[in-house]
Specification:
This protein folds into three domains: about 10-250, Bira Bifunctional Protein, Domain 2 (BirA Bifunctional Protein, domain 2), CATH 3.30.930.10; about 275-385, no CATH class; about 455-595, Threonyl-tRNA Synthetase, Chain A, domain 2 (2-Layer Sandwich). Helix content is about 40%, strand content about 20%. It has 18 helices and 18 strands. The strands form four sheets. Strands 1, 2, 3, 4, 5, 6, 7, 8 and 9 form a nine-stranded mixed beta sheet that branches. Helix 2 links the parallel strand 1 (about 25) and strand 2 (about 65-75).
């Protein structure tokens, strides 16, 4: 196929943003990897996640045409990393219409960007698309098919597929949803007469997805047409580069080449020569890259045993294990991190600014893991002393993994050195049960944040502003800043930086200040202003340019002034009685409060 094989990742990012800037879109910066205020998952997993409030109707300060390159992390497939394509960190090129243009403009622009020699220059004969086939809920998307055909896509390359392939569901059980149209590169011959982009034979490789939110799913399960229709699109940078550069793996694109080269130099082995070494290099490159972005994020995290910190710890320890497998030395993981920072310095200068913090946290975790390995080996030696027969049970192996963080591969190596076997089948069964629970718990722990947009959730969201101010006042600490929140219709959960537990008197004082603000029944006023104006007005919030030139500032009398997005109550008097249910540690230097409105 004909593509721009010399295109670089930096050029593709710039090309995307400039294309949509010319189409009247405001270029907004990437949001944090850690969702703010209205999280739906542990990390930002797609370009649309930071924009959910605006897709649900909130006006965006930058306007109704937006484009960006969003940092994302997905951790559900950590154990798959090492193959040709899986990554835990990735960049998503995206653009949005918030009640502005719709299918006609978007499909024509998609075709132009894909096929024009000024942009990707892909031969239309190498493209295929899929559209929604229709069902009892919503009609067949003949409009999208017609538009694609008019652009130049042959009818035999237009496929009608069901909801499981071509439908974007609501953020919750109800809300905006609609059909999507997906674009594919045709990389080979169809495997048979029924072959389509839904087939996993490898003939079709997805490159882009345009979502058309034109329905509202009601509580009764009906799909009603929306008066305000949105467009949400996404193109993965890594996958697109792999296609354009004609590479067999994302790890062979210019995003990874200097990182892999640093690993080769440190271990003295060659990428692509031995399958086992190649897999290990990919894991090290991916996991260290993701860790660098997590620690260097504007809401940078540190290793812990819960939430985001647990995922960071798991990634780093897995990377260190494969560094050892490659024969690299202690401290080499920091050298790989330096290669990541250097590779992304131009696109993400915050990594350079946070370089010392990144190096220190990675070095600390390597030291902790060294001690864990010592403890695990000691426990293994004890186990061998009680062993009957020549096989270590799967349960014992899993205890070493789960309690001591001891990798199963190391248990296998130690057993082999003593002429022992392990019951790998039983371990794999226990590990899979653990993985399923961890995936459900870690990735979905933040389900049901502000995405449901209900009045109850909006009231609790408003209460977090009052509590945030009250905490700073009672604790006499302006650095008691929000680190994250999770808000459902039933309760709020709020993490903030503070070094010690709150006393019962302090908790009572926070409750009193919040309830005084509620009794005052002041209006919740929203204003749009520049970041400089927000700073001058004394608004609380992260002043990273998350929303572009303008931000939304919510003011509640003299009680609170804070930069925020998402739904709020109209007046504080609507909230009810505020009560703190629990105050506890979240992680080192971070406290967690759970509260309700009664």
């Amino acid at each position: 196929m004909k593509t721009k094989k010399d295109i670089t990742s930096d050029a593709l990012r710039s090309m995307w943003l400039e294309f949509f800037r010319e189409k009247g879109h405001a270029v907004i910066p990437s949001a944090s990897l850690i969702p703010e205020n209205d999280p739906t998952v542990l990390f930002t997993t797609a370009g649309m996640h930071p924009l959910v409030p605006y897709l649900l109707g909130e006006p965006h300060p930058a306007g109704n045409r937006l484009t960006d390159v969003q940092k994302c992390v997905r951790t559900g497939d950590i154990d798959e990393v090492g193959d040709r394509s899986h990554c835990t960190f990735f960049e998503m090129l995206g653009n949005w219409s918030l009640g502005d243009y719709f299918k006609q403009e978007m499909i024509r622009w998609s075709y132009e960007f894909l096929t024009s020699d000024k942009y990707l220059g892909i031969d239309p004969a190498d493209l295929a698309v899929s559209v929604f086939a229709g069902d009892e809920d919503c009609p067949r998307d003949e409009e999208s098919a017609k538009l694609w055909n008019e652009c130049g896509i042959a009818k035999e390359h237009i496929f009608y597929l069901p909801k499981e392939n071509n439908w974007w569901g609501p953020a919750g059980k109800t809300g905006p949803c609609g059909p999507d149209t997906e674009m594919f590169i045709v990389r080979g011959k169809p495997c048979g007469p029924t072959c389509s982009p839904a087939c996993d034979c490898g003939c079709y490789l997805e490159i882009w997805n345009d979502v058309f939110m034109q329905y509202n799913k009601t509580a009764e399960g009906k799909f009603e047409p929306l008066a305000r229709r949105n467009v949400d699109t996404g193109m993965g940078l890594e996958r697109t580069l792999c296609i354009l550069q004609g590479k067999d793996s994302v790890y062979e694109t210019d995003l990874f080449v200097p990182i892999i080269a640093a690993i080769e130099k440190l271990c003295g082995k060659k990428y692509g020569k031995a399958e086992e070494d190649t897999r290990a290099m990919r894991i090290v490159a991916d996991h260290v890259r993701t860790s660098v972005f997590m620690i260097g994020d504007e809401k940078g995290i540190v290793c812990s045993n819960v939430d985001q910190g647990y995922i960071l710890r798991r990634l780093l320890r897995r990377a260190i294990r494969y560094i050892k497998q490659l024969g690299m030395q202690k401290g080499d993981v920091v050298t790989v991190a330096d290669a990541v920072i250097a590779r992304y310095a131009e696109a993400y200068p915050e990594l350079t600014a946070a370089a010392d913090k990144i190096r220190e946290e990675i070095a600390r975790e390597e030291e902790r893991f060294e001690k864990t390995l010592v403890a695990g080996i000691r426990e293994f030696e004890k186990l061998c002393g009680y062993l009957v027969g020549d096989t270590v049970s799967g349960k014992a192996c899993f205890k070493l993994y789960d309690t001591y963080g001891f990798p199963i591969e190391m248990t296998e190596e130690l057993a082999a050195e003593r002429g022992l076997k392990i019951n790998r089948a039983d371990f794999d069964k226990l590990f899979e049960e653990h993985r399923q629970k961890s995936h459900a718990g870690a990735e979905q722990r933040f389900k049901g944040g502000l995405a449901d947009n209900t009045e109850a959730t909006a009231r609790l969201h408003t209460a977090t502003h009052l509590m945030h101010r009250a905490l700073k006042t009672v604790l006499h600490d302006e650095n008691a800043n929000q680190k994250g929140s999770n808000i459902t219709a039933e309760r709020l959960r709020f993490d903030f930086t503070f070094p010690r537990p709150l006393t019962s008197e302090e908790i009572a004082q926070v409750e009193q200040l919040v309830n005084e603000a509620i009794i005052a029944d002041v209006p919740v006023v929203c204003e749009e202003m520049t970041v400089a104006e927000a700073k001058a007005a004394g608004a609380v919030g992260l002043f990273a340019a998350k929303y572009g030139e303008k931000v939304k500032v919510y003011t509640m009398g003299n009680f609170s002034k804070e930069i925020c997005g998402g739904p709020h109550a109209a007046r504080t008097g609507e909230l009810g009685h505020f009560r703190i249910v629990k105050e506890q540690s979240s992680s080192a230097g971070v406290r967690r409060i759970k509260a309700v409105l009664e």
